[in-house]
Task: structure prediction
Amino acid sequence: MPDNNIYANRSCPDAPGGDQSRVRFTTAAALLLSLIQPAGAVVTTRYSDAGMTISGAICLDAATGAVLAENKADWPGHPASVTKLMTFLLVLEDIRDHKITLGSRVNIGREPSREIGSRVGLSPQENFSIEELLFALMLQSANDAAVALAVDREGTTSAFVARMNRRAAELGMSRTHYVTPNGMTQGRGPHDDSTARDLGKLCVAICRLPEALRFTSTKTYTFRRPLRPMDLTNHNHLLTLYPGCDGLKTGWTQAANASIATTAKEGERRVIAVVLGCDSPGGAKAAQRLRDKLAADLMTEGLSKLKQIEAGKPKAVPQTATVAPTAKKAVIARKEPDFWDWLGDLFSF
Result:
């Protein structure tokens, strides 16, 4: 099986399972990654790559799901708010299946108002459309919006999480287990668990829904409410920094570190990159910047490989239309009928 590991200079002496299982970059690998930026990209960082660790990374062809590059893509990690992509997928599939519409109203109960972390401040008795809550989910990474959608779709959060796990199994995400609809876990957990490869499969399914990228590519949105409008800004900085990027979702918690699932299109080619559990000695902000940079590098490598694959395909030779030569009209010599011709005609029926 070919090794698609584009970060071969990393060393990883430990087995998967604990903090030491994350992949450690060497200075040489970091220098290599900094040299493969796409033309026009402005993905820069003032943080050093030295000491950066990740749980896993992968790049896929969005059209086919084929792996273009990977490193420890099956190692376990916690996706943090990238978990919200499964909530996003299930709601969009309900819209596709005509169970709800973007304009369907959601009544807010008490449970969303108890969520912590990133939120839009939903209060009991408020009422919002599915579309408004999806923008809050994908731009603000609102934990309360995720719970509101979960309760609306399945009655309880636990029932929705069970549905998340069923859908993950259907997508072949065999190493994924969800415990929340939003990735907001703390301390020793339990945490949402996944791998870079599994999250890649989820992203392929999302990119096949035409409505999805409208939400993930939106940079700003005003979440309207009586007397308290809230301007939301997408947390995915690659939407601005990387040409062609139009999704998907970032995530960070202290327990999970920094993760991202992102996608970009160049011409007819589209790739998906996932970086799971990025950490840095420089702290959370450094880890998030380095996570973004690694995702950009993965997308660049993936788009380059797709271009090479396309260039290597045999080109169809145009068929030149040929006109069949005009058949010459046969000239038959006529002869005068004789006795034998008369005899043949006599016995013909």
